[in-house]
């Protein structure tokens, strides 16, 4: 089932999400719904707060970025051809490497894209969709998507990384998003 994406301004996007217990009801169905919602919205990552749940789950599929790149661009990133993963109860262990810019966007903040600097490498502990524990290190585009989605479960948004003047310049657009004065080609819910 395709879930509505929560728009900027909704309080759930600013809450630190809670770890879930193994007996969380209908977990597999919720994960399937997240995948379906992410793909239907043309996203490469989706976190539970973006669909109104303050729980520590996010999904990523960085392979989609590589599928749409020219062959010579794929060599620029060490994580080609990308990864598709579910992260449950994730906690970052370390961030390493030089910070590099990439033009990020967010399904909850449509039609706004800005360069954000993030470290090259992330090491993260998490449970997979079968609730098996992992601690893995990711780099390149995959590391960036993981950091972006991880921010969502920490109550943070990519616009929080922007300089105050840039954020102030975007305030009108952000206000329009929070009031529902925006058209997108996927289901959204807006803060009241």
From TrEMBL:
Biological process, per Gene Ontology: translation
Q: Which UniProt keywords apply?
A: Hydrolase, Iron, Metal-binding, Protein biosynthesis
Q: What is its EC number?
A: 3.5.1.88
Q: Which superkingdom is the protein from?
A: Bacteria
Which InterPro entries does the entry mention? Peptide_deformylase, Peptide_deformylase_sf
Q: What terms describe the molecular function in GO for this protein? A: metal ion binding; peptide deformylase activity
Catalytic machinery residues: 149
- Catalytic activity reported: N-terminal N-formyl-L-methionyl-[peptide] + H2O = N-terminal L-methionyl-[peptide] + formate
Q: Which cofactor does it need?
A: Fe(2+)
Q: How is the cofactor bound?
A: Binds 1 Fe(2+) ion.
Q: Which Gene3D superfamilies match?
A: Peptide deformylase
Show the CDD domains listed in the entry: Pep_deformylase
Q: Which residues bind Fe cation?
A: 106, 148, 152
What role does it play? Removes the formyl group from the N-terminal Met of newly synthesized proteins. Requires at least a dipeptide for an efficient rate of reaction. N-terminal L-methionine is a prerequisite for activity but the enzyme has broad specificity at other positions.
Q: Which family does it belong to?
A: Belongs to the polypeptide deformylase family.
Protein name from the UniProt record: Peptide deformylase
- Organism equals Deminuibacter soli
**In the record, what lineage is assigned to the organism producing the protein?**
Bacteria, Pseudomonadati, Bacteroidota, Chitinophagia, Chitinophagales
């Amino acid at each position: 089932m395709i879930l509505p994406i929560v728009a900027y301004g909704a309080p759930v996007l600013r809450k630190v999400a809670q770890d879930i217990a193994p007996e969380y009801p209908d977990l597999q169905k919720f994960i399937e719904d997240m995948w379906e919602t992410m793909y239907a919205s043309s996203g490469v990552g989706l976190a539970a707060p973006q669909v109104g749940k303050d729980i520590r789950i996010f999904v990523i599929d960085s392979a989609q970025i590589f599928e749409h790149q020219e062959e010579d661009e794929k060599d620029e990133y060490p994580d080609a051809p990308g990864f598709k993963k579910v992260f449950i109860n994730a906690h970052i262990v370390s961030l390493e490497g030089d910070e590099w810019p990439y033009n990020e966007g967010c399904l909850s903040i449509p039609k706004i894209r800005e360069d954000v600097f993030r470290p090259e490498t992330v090491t993260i502990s998490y449970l997979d969709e079968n609730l098996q524990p992992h601690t893995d290190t990711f780099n390149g585009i995959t590391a960036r998507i993981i950091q972006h989605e991880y921010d969502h479960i920490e109550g943070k948004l990519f616009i929080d990384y922007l300089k105050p003047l840039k954020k102030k310049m975007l305030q009108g657009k952000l206000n329009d998003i929070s009031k529902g004065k925006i058209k997108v080609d996927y289901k959204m819910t807006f803060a009241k």
